[in-house]
Amino acid sequence: MLEDAPSSDLRPPLRVAVAASASRRHHADSAATQLQAALGPPAQVWGTGLADASRMTAGSLDALVVLLQPQDDTRGLTEAMDHADRLGLPRLVLGDARTVAGLGPAALPLDAPTASVAAMLRGMLARQAEIGRLREQASGTERLVGDLRGDLGRLQDELQLAAQVQREFLPRAMPDLPRATVAALWRPCNWVSGDIYDVRRLDEHHLGLFVADAVGHGIPAALLTMVICRSLPAKEIRGNDYRIVPPAEAMARLNHDLLQRQGRETRFTTAIYGILDLRTLRMRVAGAGHPPPVILRGSQALELVRTQGGVLGVFEDERWIETEIDLHPGDRLILHSDGLETALPQDPAAPGGADEPDPGHLQAFRDLLGEPDVHRLVRKLGERMDRTGPRADIDDITVLALQIR
């Protein structure tokens, strides 16, 4: 019999409270006496009411046994059980079949042999050390999760600040031009973007348009694009005079600057830079591995502006060749990053290839031939991308559109 087991198995002193409702307090005392005999010294078992059980401290109690029947007054039961749970104490409920149903393994019939009750308590107490260790681990995990939440909150704040700083690098407003209008669409796929653009009034007669797309996403790409945008050599001041840096030369100098700044990792970017003479409407363009600009000629024709030159930040001896294009009233010029191509509908039957745009992309541009206003044009592009679904969110997107009035 378990009553004969040596008491040295227990960690003295073992203190067990047997709690019952006020009307069954005498049953609690009787059950405590029987359980005391089953556990043997140095165990201490006593009867108590439910209300008193909820006021016991961890140092005065090792386990709680509750006697419960359907007709009992259960006031104080929830408090007693919750109190024992907060203290990490084993809880054993003794009741009839309906009472203990659903209470799990820590429940026995009210008429269970005292030896069974003692064995149940011994098993529960034997697991207390492991349960305590698991509780400590859980508590440590909760603290770790709390620390991680704090770190994530701080990271989110920093990302919001980084996004705000990057937006401050973008033009606050488009320049007021006598013969042209410029509109832009800029959509980061995350907090910050690996794309950036700039529109500069270089002097009274020249306008510079620039789009850059750094490899990758996130903060490293965003930092790279901001450095590139601020490093773009648009003009050279020479005393009382100045010189506008041609697009091909600007690309070469940007490339040299990137190579000088790089460490062990190669970080590169594509870019497109054009300078428009507002008097002649002639534009000189240089591209660095960037998608070709698109010209919408009135409402009938679409042209791609091919450029020659590799990406920035890879080869020191790379050369860029300028392309000259003549624009006319009613033309719209679109510069964009490759994120736009990802977001636009694609033709699954197209053969593909890096040199030829997807026919689905070209059709999206052809559908805009009838739109003479660039503000509505970029809005329609945005709406079209929204209809493509998740593909519009996997890459940063930049569109810069110029309209000749």
Please describe what this structure looks like:
- The protein has eleven helices and 17 strands.
- The chain has 405 residues and is an alpha+beta fold.
- The chain has three domains: 2-126, Glucose-6-phosphate isomerase like protein, domain 1 (Rossmann fold), CATH 3.40.50.10490; 138-168; 170-404, 4-Layer Sandwich (Phosphatase 2c, domain 1), CATH 3.60.40.
- Helix 3 (77-87) links the parallel strand 3 and strand 4 (91-95).
- The longest helix has 42 residues, at 128-169.
- The model is unreliable at 1-10 (pLDDT under 50).
Number of beta strands: 17
| Shape-level CATH architecture of the largest domain | 4-Layer Sandwich
Give the overall average pLDDT: 87
Assembly type of the chains comes to single chain
Structure annotation, total helices: 11
Supply the helix-strand structural class: alpha+beta
Radius of gyration: 39 Å
Order of neighbouring strands in the sheet with most strands: 2-1-3-4-5
Distance between the termini: 103 Å
What CATH calls the topology of the largest domain is Phosphatase 2c, domain 1
Contiguous runs where pLDDT drops below 50 for at least 5 residues: 1-10
At the fourth CATH level, what is the homologous superfamily of the largest domain? PPM-type phosphatase domain
